[in-house]
Amino acid sequence: FGFGGGRRSRTRARRGADLRYDLTISFMDAAFGVETQIDIEKRETCPECQGTACEPGTSPENCRYCGGTGQISRSQGFFSIRTTCPQCQGQGTTIPHPCGECKGTGHIFRKKKVSVKMPAGVDTGSRLRLTGEGEAGSQGGPPGDLYIYVQVEPHDFFQRDDRDIICQIPISFVQATLGDTIEVPTLNGDKKLEIPKGTQPGDIFRFEGQGIPSLRGYGRGDQIIQVMVKTPTGINKKQEKLLKEFAAIESG
Asked: Which has fewest Cβ within 10 Å: 21, 50, 105, 237?
C-alpha cells in the first residue's frame, strides 16, 4: 500500500540448495566402513561470468520500467498499490548483454566426482553430510550441502540387530548329543565354537566383541549364534536299528 516501502536489495546473497544422494552399500562395507566415489550433477557458478550473468566487460543496468526499485506503483482510489516489477522480477536491474556460457543465469550444471568416506557401523537410514558439496549460492552466497542417505544390502548369512549380528548354524543330532567343536563364520573369518553335550535346538551362544563397530568409535557388538539341530533323514537299516536300541534303553 505504499507505507514505508523501501528500495529492494539487489545483491542479497543466497545460500545454495542442498542435494540428496541415495547410496547403497554392502553389509560388509557397512560393518567396516568404505571409501568410494559418487557422480553427482549440480549447479555451479558460471566460470565465464563468475556468477554475474553478464557478458564479461558488461554489467547489469537499472530497470527502466521500475526505475531500479523492483516495484511499480499504481493508484487505486485513495490507495497506492505496489507490486513486483514484471520486467525485472523485483531485482531492480536487467541484463542487456547476458553471458553466452550460462545464458544469463549465472550458473551452469556440471557433473562432478565426490569422494565419500563411510564410517564403520553405518546402517540403513544413516545420513552423512558433506559440507559445501551442494549447489552454488547466488550473489556470492555460500554453497549448500550434500546429504548421503545410506541403504545397506542384506547379507546371505548374517542379520543385524543394532550393533549385534545374528546367525543360525545347523548341527547334527549326534553333534548336539555328544558335543563337538565346529567352525563358525564371523565378520573377521572363521572361529571355533564348542558345542557342549546335550545341546538343544534353538540354544544360543555368543562371541563377544565380534559384532558391528560403534559409530562413536569405541567398542563392538556381539555375534549371537543360534544352533539348529537337524533331524537325520534317509538312514540305513543299521542306523535305524541303533536308534531303536537307543530308544529302548532310554524308555527303561
From this structure: 237
